[in-house]
Amino acid sequence: MANYPIVERLLAGDRRALARIVTLIENNAPEARPILAQLHTHGGHAHIVGLTGSPGAGKSTLVMQLARELRRREQRIGIIAVDPSSPFSGGAILGDRIRMQELAGDPNVFIRSMASRGSLGGLATATRDAVRALDAAGFDTILIETVGAGQAEVEIVRAAQTVIVVTVPGMGDDIQAIKAGILEIADIFVVNKADRPGADQTAAELRMLLSLDEQRKERAWRVPIVKTSAASGEGVPELADKLAAHLASLRETGQLGSRSGRQARSEMLALLHQALLDKIAATISTEDWNRLIDEVVERQTDPYSAAGEIARRIGLAAAQEQD
Amino acid sequence: MANYPIVERLLAGDRRALARIVTLIENNAPEARPILAQLHTHGGHAHIVGLTGSPGAGKSTLVMQLARELRRREQRIGIIAVDPSSPFSGGAILGDRIRMQELAGDPNVFIRSMASRGSLGGLATATRDAVRALDAAGFDTILIETVGAGQAEVEIVRAAQTVIVVTVPGMGDDIQAIKAGILEIADIFVVNKADRPGADQTAAELRMLLSLDEQRKERAWRVPIVKTSAASGEGVPELADKLAAHLASLRETGQLGSRSGRQARSEMLALLHQALLDKIAATISTEDWNRLIDEVVERQTDPYSAAGEIARRIGLAAAQEQD
Q1: Number of A:B CB contacts under 8 A?
Q2: pTM reported for the whole predicted model
Q3: Where do the domains of chain B lie, and which CATH numbers do they carry?
Q4: Could you give the ipTM of this predicted complex?
Q5: What residues of B are in contact with residue A34 (Cβ under 8 Å)?
């Protein structure tokens, strides 16, 4: 099947075509899906890196420094800044974008911020799709940066191949950073602002917490803790080295393939779950749905019968239940 | 519709009928569902309380003391001990059951342990269904106790009306306790083993963490922090008072109804999601499913087309996509 013209332009390196596609994704435009389907078959070459951590940990500056370092290594870099807490894109991170001006003028760097227009699931899907577009466009490393470090952010960075969790010296922030299961998803820890007092202690505490994680013990990859000062750029080359080392480890142990398989499986189930919700929305009126919920709460019916009624009406009931 | 004989026996107070039904639930027996459908319409009277917190926080002893205190208040008590980390029920918690002998001889107390036989979702469903059976059997308070404090436990206690998070003096345990979004779900905090040094400091740290939670500020209920010594029973009457106060607050603010509505909605969506997975399993062979995943990973197809193919084969595709 021939590619869409906009896909051909993106593959030829046209930044405006890429920007236009990301906008279609952000707006959840129906025409995005066939485009994304074509883009998918052209991707699979980028190293996808997620960065999360408490607000104020200096992630934006770190991302900028990391992008600079990777540019020195002749890589083309895509950056997606995601803010699940804000319905506006570009607002709070406008300052960062100005600071990123140096990078933004570089044709080998593409920066885009994305914000929550609807549900969290929608933002996670939009981010994954934007990564798909940047991957097809040939960027070597794609950095996904989240504003905060909550459940939403965990969901978003889970789509990455390498997850960096950024923290800073001081206990309060550590507690924030390890909330919401973040400890479990980290492939690399960064103690940023390491020129501040307490950096070594924070690194030691993280090492201790990691040693308590039983599941880690079975893994080949030992999570490194890298101390950086994003302001001065100290530690950033080491972080870039660790990124490359993690990717190599994923490849050597065959985990890159199994992670891709898990992610594909999880994306397909999410698409099918969305198809289920779409079918419910198209078939069952809000009044009917709310009436059923009320009847369950008031004990006039039970959840199994109520769900069974909906399953029958959307054609999902198993054969024996349709009799 | 007439009730099943076993339902009639349960409603008449027959403990063996209740035990039999909980076993059917645990075994995921197909005959459990119509029984549960009938039980649902007889419930809605119990106060459902979830207890979670780090292993070693003394939850089992606390549950025993709390049950004793509620018995003094003439309540009938159901206790479900849930262990998502173990495929065996009754094993690790057998010691607790022996300690609970005093309660177990009381006809107004029903104790049951449940463990993970399959998926986490399965255990959460089984726990919710066991609560449904105990509720219909007329227990005034149902205590759901989890062994650990991970994402699985959060999922399980989310079905409760009141969530108690148990911690002990000392920072390491605090960090464990507030992991995985546990801070957000607590209605009552307990600092157990409060005779140990550092109890006041732990309480102060929790108070500080709670004050950082922006969403809390809009709520009528201010999370109390109760210091207990489960060994001596100190603080347990106050905890029982707070339980009653939380239930009263839920009723006064209308939140009991909105929580029930949210839980019914979430249960119906879970049942429909399960119906989707059942339909996929009944229609698509494992070979076909794995082949599709492989083709997505190998970029021979894209996830939208692969999910669309499955949606069509299970009859879920929207009308325009079926052309």
Answers
A1: 151
A2: 0.76
A3: 44-252 (3.40.50.300), 267-322 (no CATH)
A4: 0.84
A5: 304
